[in-house]
Design brief:
The protein contains four helices and no strands. It is mostly helical. The termini are far apart.
């Protein structure tokens, strides 16, 4: 019997629904408990502090070996985009070169 067949069984469906309902009630009771919520908030705050400390350490290590950070790369992309826009603006102002019929060289006789 495959897992799909098992999950389609009406008895299993009822058991799962009852289990989900009970889990929902337990979670609601836990979330309404002030001590539990305080513990969850403390855990989340400490996890965020740990992440910030880790990020600072990674940033310091990257700087020590001269690796750019994500912020450095984004800043460079922004500056490159600005430069490209500036060059496009300048290119639009410069008239195209006059057609000379050659390949752009002075046509000076092959270096003799």
């Amino acid at each position: 019997m495959s897992l799909d067949d098992l999950l389609k069984n009406p008895v299993v469906k009822r058991a799962l629904a009852a289990g989900e309902e009970r889990v929902g009630k337990v979670v609601t009771q836990l979330l309404s408990n002030e001590r539990v919520m305080h513990g969850v908030q403390t855990f989340v705050a400490r996890a965020l502090d740990a992440k910030a400390t880790f990020d600072r350490g990674v940033r310091t290590a990257a700087q020590a070996v001269s690796l750019p950070t994500t912020e450095d790369v984004e800043e460079l992309r922004k500056r490159l985009s600005e430069l490209e826009a500036m060059l496009d603006g300048l290119a639009a102002r410069v008239p195209p070169p006059a057609a000379s019929g050659g390949d752009g060289r002075d046509g000076g006789g092959g270096g003799q």
